[in-house]
Amino acid sequence: MVKNSSATEKLLLDKAKVEELLQNIARRMVAQHPDLSGLGLVGIRTKGTQLAEALSSRIYDLKEARLPVGTIDTTLYRDDVSVSNRRPVLCLTRIPFTVTGKRIILVDDVLYTGRTIRAALDALMDLGRPSIVQLAVLIDRGCRELPIQAD
Q1: pLDDT tens, position by position, 37-64
Q2: Which among 32, 35, 38, 78 counts the fewest CB atoms within 10 Å?
Q3: Which of 111, 10, 7, 6 lies closest to 51, judged by CA?
Q4: pLDDT tens, 58-112?
Q5: What's phi and psi for 99, nearest 5 deg?
Q6: At CA 56, angle to CA 68 and CA 42, rounded to 5?
Q7: From CA 50, how far away is CA 117, in angstroms rounded?
Q8: Beta bridge partners of 58
Q9: pLDDT at position 16, please?
Q10: Phi, psi of 106 (to 5 degrees)
Q11: Interior CA angle at 32 toward 74 and 115, to 5°?
C-alpha cells in the first residue's frame, strides 16, 4: 500500500494495484531485455530495495532467471544534506555484483523532483561505469526539478 505523505493521508495504490504494476513492470523489463545476463536491479533505500526484490521475484516467475539485486544509499550524495539541521543517518550500500559494464535498472517507489535519482546516479558512478542505467518507479508525480524520466 502506498500512501500520500501529506497530513491528510490518501491511499494512492492498494495492494492489488501495486501487484498489477509490479507484474507490468516485470513484463516490460523482460520484453526490453530478452537476454537477462548482465542486467542488475539496484533499489534506492529503502522502499526501492523492497520493490527491486519484488521485481526480481516476478522476473524469476516469468523467465526462471534470478536477477541480482543491490541496494544503494543516497544520503551523502543528496544536494540538500548540508542544508538540513539534522545529522544524516547513513545506511549500507550493498551491491553484490560489479556495476561496470552492466545494464542497471534503478528502482524506487516514487519519482517526484528527480533529486533522489540524481543522487543515486552519482552514488552508482562512484562504484563503476554501467553500460546503461534505466529507471523503474511505481508512481511518477511529475513535478521534476531535473530532467529525469522513468523508463
Answers
A1: 999 999 999 899 999 999 999 999 999 9
A2: 35
A3: 111
A4: 999 999 999 999 999 998 887 765 555 566 666 789 999 999 999 999 999 998 8
A5: -95, -20
A6: 55
A7: 16
A8: none
A9: 94
A10: -75, 140
A11: 20
Q: β-strand 103-111 against 132-140: which pairing, if any?
A: parallel
- List residues bridging with 60 in a β-sheet: none
Four-residue CA torsion sign, 51, 57, 63, 67:
positive
Dist. CA 59–CA 46, nearest whole Å: 20
Whose CA is closest to 28, among 1, 59, 2?
59
Q: What is the DSSP letter of 76?
A: G
Tell me what pLDDT residue 2 has: 53
Beta bridge partners of 103: 39, 132
Strand, helix or coil for residue 42: strand
Place of cell 533522489: 116
